[in-house]
Amino acid sequence: MSERLREVLVVGASIAGVRAVQALRRQGYEGTLRLVGDEDVPAYRRPELSKRFLAGDLSVDQIALATPADLDCDVLLNARATRLEVADQRVWIGDAGADPRPYRFDGLVIATGAHARRLRVPPMAGVHVLRTHQDAELLRAELATSPRVVVVGGGLIGCEVAATCRSLGLAVTIVEPTGALMSGAIGREVGARITELQSGHGVDVCVNCGVTELRGGNRVESVVTSGGREIAADVVVVGIGSEPNTSWLAGSGLPPATGVLCAPNLAVVGARRAVGAGDVVAWKSSGSARPVRMEHWENAVRQAETAAHTLLLGESAPGFDGTGGLFWSHQFDATLHVLGDPRAADEVRFLEDDPGRQRAVACYARDGRVMAFALLNSADWLGSAGRLVRQRAAMPLHGTGEPLRR
User: Fold this and answer.
1) Which of 147, 209, 390, 400 is the S-S candidate for 235 at Cβ 3.0 to 4.6 Å?
2) Alpha-carbon distances of 340 from 326, 378, 385, rounded to whole Å
3) Helices (H), 173-292
4) What sign for the dihedral angle of Cα 288, 292, 295, 299?
5) Cα dihedral angle (380, 381, 383, 384), rounded to 10 degrees?
6) Residues 120-151 pLDDT 10s
7) Quick count: other Cβ atoms within 10 Å of Cβ 272?
């Protein structure tokens, strides 16, 4: 396929799009390459937004992934894709407020990511989401006034925002509908350790609590929970997940899915010479009955590599290997690493558990086979845990032996 590719269009200029551009060049593509991004700055390290960037320790330039000059391609910023025409192989793009115009392609990488879900409440000042550098800058400006902060949703972003705000000396409450923080990603057992971590640093954690109402006039004044508690709030940060950026694909003829439906090798189902990468992808994993979306940094990097390979090789390209993936979170003085694919129904066994040192090693198994690890302040386990996940090894009985650790 590579000899027929003359113009490749990469739509989405965050980590998946940037890494796809770099992978295409590294794998030998020499034709025209155009990267399209809808933000006003070059790609940046989005995970920093909830941590050091929000705290004011870093500028947007300091978290840049790559400047346009670093990439061997044409870069369009402030440019939004509005329509895909599959049959004619064209994407319509509006550049900096101009009317959309068509860009032809021989190869297409869809890497448009996702956007933050919002609460269904009337608009009012003081209510924030956190997905872009502009979101973080608006929130950071409000934190300078020492507000009372309520974080709605105790997932990864919510916990990191809460930790950053509390480290700034602010009064912080997390409202989480399940029984433990981050339980959707790491289960209740390990989520309980994160709950203890946040509580131990002075965060008011309200679990098993939904949000029924935000009260206030032009500006939020309080949050009302499903248990009837009213929590005073000057700032509310909503961290209730994300939705893939697929509105521009309406009418394209691609099959309906929560995301862009892709084959195991990340070829877009229903389109020729098109691949997907990153948070927008609904991937047909061989290990799952349904297409899955994996919204993590390393997943985007690895998918970009596979997507480039598939675009250049066509159907003969191997499938994406989603095993052994990794995401991490820094909260206060603790670091959590999660490898593999933990699920709520998995058997969880703690191979190490030392609450006094805020250290834990949890192994997740399905049918007796290792599927994932969660490592709290246990980075020395990364090598052996990753190996056990990739091998789908039998669940270890304990973690005290040096052969297992090394």
Assistant:
1) 147
2) 6, 16, 9
3) 183-200
4) positive
5) 140
6) 999 999 999 999 999 999 999 999 999 999 99
7) 14
